[in-house]
Amino acid sequence: MVERLVVIGGDAAGMSAASQARRRRPADDLEIIALERSGWVSYSACGEPYYVAGYVEPLERLVARTPEQFARMDIEVRTRCEAAAVDLDRRLVAVTDLASGGRTELGFDTLMIGTGARPIRPAIDGAHLSGVYGLHTLDDAAALRTAADRGPGNAVVVGGGYVGLEAAEAFHSRGWKVTVLTSGRAVLDRTLDPDLGAQVVEAMERMGIRVVTETRVRCINGADRVESVGCEGETHPAEVVVLGLGFRPESSLAAEAGIGLGPTGAVAVDDRQRTDAEGVWAGGDCAEAAHLLTGRPVNFHLGTVANKAGRVAGINIGGGDAHFPGVLGTAITKICDLEIASTGLRPTDAAAAGFDAAVGDAQGTTAAGYWPTAAPMTIRVTAERSGGRILGAQVVGGPGAGKRIDVFATAIWNRMTAEDLAWADLAYAPPFSGVWDLIHIAARRAAAQTT
Amino acid sequence: MVERLVVIGGDAAGMSAASQARRRRPADDLEIIALERSGWVSYSACGEPYYVAGYVEPLERLVARTPEQFARMDIEVRTRCEAAAVDLDRRLVAVTDLASGGRTELGFDTLMIGTGARPIRPAIDGAHLSGVYGLHTLDDAAALRTAADRGPGNAVVVGGGYVGLEAAEAFHSRGWKVTVLTSGRAVLDRTLDPDLGAQVVEAMERMGIRVVTETRVRCINGADRVESVGCEGETHPAEVVVLGLGFRPESSLAAEAGIGLGPTGAVAVDDRQRTDAEGVWAGGDCAEAAHLLTGRPVNFHLGTVANKAGRVAGINIGGGDAHFPGVLGTAITKICDLEIASTGLRPTDAAAAGFDAAVGDAQGTTAAGYWPTAAPMTIRVTAERSGGRILGAQVVGGPGAGKRIDVFATAIWNRMTAEDLAWADLAYAPPFSGVWDLIHIAARRAAAQTT
C-alpha cells in the first residue's frame, strides 16, 4: 500500500522534509503532496531585500527549486492551495484552491506542518493603506520592488530588526530618502546589546539613513494612499511604508486541529520533530526548537533552523533516525558597511536564563592593524562565570567580521571554555587578522572574568 | 636579589616571553635583556611581501613595538647584538656587538631562546649573486623593495610556498614579469592537496604569473649580477631572483650549548616551553611543538605558534602556570583572487600518521548562489573513518572563503565529529553563504564516509 505524506507549506521546512523523505522512500512506497498558498515554493526570503534593491535579478533567482523540479523528484506541489483545516481523526486536510475558491479534501497518512510565520501588523490606523508593505513572501518582494521602482521618494521603515534594516538599505540604495522608526534603544535590539546596536545606527546615519530610536508609531496617515507616518512629536512624510515588526508563528491551523502548542505559541515538537499527534510532524518558523544552552523551547524565525528541522523530519519520515541538535540563534547580516552577527546568549539573556555571566569585550580590526583596508571590529563574549563555558558572542565590524561568529557557535556547540578558545590555533595572515585574532583577545578577556 | 632573564632573539617568541614575564614580575625582581642581531624587534615577517608590493608603507608599520617602547616596560633591547655562544655552567652568553665587532659576556639566571629559523639556500651555483634575495627579515624586505622599485623587469621566484607566492604576487603587482619555479606537483604542496594547489596555479596564471611545476633549478647564471635561472630544459631570464625554499629551525646555538634537540632538529621543549636545561626556555620557529592530533613533535614556522609559545614561556618565567595547548598548523594566505587555508591533517598526512582517513569534498560558493559576487569555493574535510572525528580541512575560494578554516580548527580542538559539525548552528545570510554553509556540506560528505 502506498502511503501519503501531505506537506503543508512549501518553503524551507516543508520542502526539506519532502526531499529527505523522498530520498529514503520511493514513490511506490510514499506519495508526497505539498500544499502552498502562494505561487512559489522553496524560496529564499532572506534574499528579498536584495531583489528590492535591484542587486539580485530576476525574482526567480531567489527560488531554489521550482514545482517542476520537485515534480521530477516525484513530489507533487500544489501552489495557490491553502490548507484550511486538518481533521486528525479522519486523516483529512481541507484544501482551498485560492484560484477557483473551490474546497476539496485530501487524505493523508503522515502530515508535515511547515506553515511558517506571519508578520506582525501594528494595531494602528492606516496600517492597511495602499503604499504600506510587508516583506515576507516573494509576492511581497515583487510588490515592494514595484514600489521602489516608482521612486525615489520618502520611505519610512517601521521596526529596527533585520528585515527592516535590510529594506531600509535597499530603498536607500535606490535613491530614496529613508527613515527608520524603532521603539528600541538602538536597532537589532533582539540580538545586539544597545551599545553595539548604536554602532549600526551610526553606520546607517553616516550613509544618510535617518534612524529614530525609542519612538512609537501612532498612526499611518493618508486618504487613499499613505502620505505620512505619525510618531510622538513628529510626522514623517512617506510614499512608501515598510512594516518590519517581526513575526509570530503561524500555528493556528495546528492549534485548531488540536495539535499541542508550546509556551512560545508555536507548535511543540520533540527532537525528532514529532508533534503530540500521531504521524504529524512540524518544523521551521511555525514550530519550537530547543535552545542548546537553556534547553528551553524557543521559536526563532531563521532559515537555518527551518532547513535543519525539515531535514530531521524528512529523514525520520523516511525511516531514518535524525535528531534536531538544538539551536543557538546564530544570525548574521550586512547593513551599510557593517557586518553584524550574534550567537547564543547576550549577557542580559544569560542573566535572564539564570546564568551568572561574565563578559569579555575587545575592540580591534578585521585585519592586521597596518593593513590598509583593516576596518574596526568589536567582539563581545558572554561566558559562565563559574567554569568559563562560552555562552554567547556578538560581532560588529567591517568586511570579514561577521562570519567569525561561526567560531563562537562551534565553540559553544562543544561546551568550550573562553580560556580554551583564547589559545585555539586559528588562522593568521595580515589580510585576515592580527597574529592574535580578535576572537582570542575577546575570549581571553572573558576568561579573565571567570573562575 | 634581582634575577636576570636574557632573551635571545627579539621577535615573536622572545618578545612575547619578555612581555609576559614583565607583566608578572617587576624590574626590581627580574631584569630583562633581549639580544637581537638585526636592527628590528617584534616585527611582522608575514607583512613583508605587502611592503615589497608597496601596499603597506613605510617599513616601520610592520613593527609592533620598538626597542624604545620595550624600554618603557623596563625591557632592555640590544639590537645588532648576536648571541655567539651559551655557557650553561657559567650561566653566560657570549655576545658579539655586530656594529663594533666587540665581544662581551652577559650573565643570566634564566634564558629564553627565540632564535627563529633560517631560510634554506639551494646548493647551486650562483645562489649568492647580486640580485638574488631571500624574504625573511625586515632588512630582506627593505632590500627586495629597493630591487622591486628598480623595475619592472623579469623576476623569478624559486619555491612554491607561502612566501614565494606572496613575493611573486608582490612583484607582479609592481608590473614585473614573474615566473615561479617549483619542484612540487602544484604550489603550496606542504599544506594543500595537489588538485587544490592546481586551483591556485590557475588563479596565478589567469592573472599573468607563470608557474612552472615539477621542475628543478640547476643554476643561477650571471657574472656579477644575476641574469637568468637555469632549469631542466629551459632558462628563465631574471634581473631579480627570490628564494622561497622554506626554513630550517635556527637551533645551532642551543645545540652547541648542549641543549637537547628533538627529532625535527628544533629545540625540544615540554608543554611549558622548558628545554632539558635548567632555567632555559625556548619557543617559536627554533623550537618544537606538539601536534594536537598526533601528539608528535613538529616544527612549524608560524607567527601564531611563536606568539603562543612565547606567551606560555613568559607566563611561566613570571611565576604563572601556562601550558602550550598543541598545534594544528592552521594557516591562511591570499594569492591573487583566492583565499587559501588549511588546518590539521590532509588525507595523505592522516594516512602517514596512521589514521584511517575518510574525505569529504564540497564545491560551492562563498555566498548564496544568486549573490552577484558569489565566488567559487572548495572545502575538503579529513575525518577519522571510525568514529568520524575531524582531522583536518582545506579551503580554497574567493573572498570570505579563507577564515572558514577557523571553524574547522575549533572543531578539531574539541574533537568534534564531522556528523556533529554537519548540523552546527552556523550563521547564514545571502551575502555570506548558502542556508547550508559549504562547511556543513563538506562535513556531511565526510561523515557519510565514516562509521
What is the terminal separation of chain A in angstroms? 61 Å
Tell me which protein chains meet in the greatest interface and how many residues each side has. A-B, 64 and 64 residues
Mean pLDDT across the residues of chain A is: 97
Proper CATH architecture of the largest domain in chain A: 3-Layer(bba) Sandwich
The order of strands across the largest sheet of chain A is 3-2-1-7-18
Oligomer: homodimer
Strand content of chain A: 25-35%
Name the CATH superfamily classification of the largest domain in chain A: FAD/NAD(P)-binding domain
The total strand number of chain A stands at: 25
Give the C-alpha Rg of chain A.
23 Å
CATH fold call of the largest domain in chain A: FAD/NAD(P)-binding domain
What is the highest CATH level, the class of the largest domain in chain A?
Alpha Beta
- How many structurally independent domains of chain A? 3
For the largest beta-sheet of chain A, the strand count, sense and barrel status come to: 5 strands, parallel
Which regions of chain A contain 5 or more consecutive residues with pLDDT less than 50? Answer: none
Estimated helix fraction of chain A:
25-40%
